[in-house]
User: Which sequence fits this backbone?
């Protein structure tokens, strides 16, 4: 699976959009980009995934660049409950997820 | 659905004792994963099963660790004998074939004294 690079931490004001970047320059054509988050003391939670098109669900939007070498997770209206570690994972079809260090997003009141 | 269920939620034991962690996956899911999370090493995959059969146990740290899945609704992770360095949060997750969308349980916090 391709390696990912994320900033270790980010801050966001409550009610504003949180944009979390991820670089995955070695991604292969058949690999997906997955985003999970882990709120303190809980198990990781699936957020969204995509292959090459932008995706949106009730939790977030995923923007993947045309060359697929980077992506951005967007939380449109961040709340205090969105404070968590966000993991960007690139994976093929072997069903294994490799978690890196992720980005600690702190939403401030 | 109740989600992935793990028990116990907390376990405190003494070095040398046997520890058994339990997991009930989401009904209908055919993949089950065991992870371990520590501050030093982050979240690591230990082993995963497909249709109750172990597929990849390359993440199991050593022979003291063993995992079984006797049926589609139950799995155990056993540590015998336990050591202080095994102290961690152990997560179980399950997924449906054809997707990497894994659903995690609340975890078991293990402390080995």
Assistant:
């Amino acid at each position: 699976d391709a390696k990912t690079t994320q900033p270790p931490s980010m801050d966001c004001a409550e009610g504003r959009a949180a944009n979390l970047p991820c670089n995955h320059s070695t991604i292969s054509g058949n690999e997906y980009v997955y985003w999970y988050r882990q709120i303190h003391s809980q198990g990781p939670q699936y957020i969204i995934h995509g292959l090459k098109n932008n995706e949106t669900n009730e939790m977030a939007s995923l923007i993947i660049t045309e060359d697929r070498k980077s992506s951005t997770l967007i939380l449109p209206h961040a709340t205090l409950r969105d404070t968590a570690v966000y993991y960007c994972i690139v994976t093929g079809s072997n069903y294994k997820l490799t978690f890196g260090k992720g980005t600690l997003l702190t939403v401030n009141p | 659905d109740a989600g992935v269920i793990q028990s116990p939620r907390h376990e405190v034991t003494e070095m040398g004792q046997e520890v058994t962690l339990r997991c009930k996956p989401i009904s209908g899911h055919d993949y089950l994963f065991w992870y371990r999370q520590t501050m030093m090493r982050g979240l690591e995959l230990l082993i995963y099963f497909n249709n109750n059969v172990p597929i990849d146990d390359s993440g199991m740290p050593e022979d003291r660790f063993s995992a079984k899945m006797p049926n589609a609704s139950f799995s155990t992770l056993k540590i015998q004998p336990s050591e202080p360095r095994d102290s961690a949060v152990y997560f179980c997750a399950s997924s449906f074939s054809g997707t990497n969308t894994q659903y995690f349980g609340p975890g078991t916090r293990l402390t080995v004294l």
Summary: Chain B touches chain A at residues 4, 31, 33, 42-45, 48, 50, 56, 91, 93, 95, 100-107 (CB under 8 Å). Chain B has no helices and eleven strands.
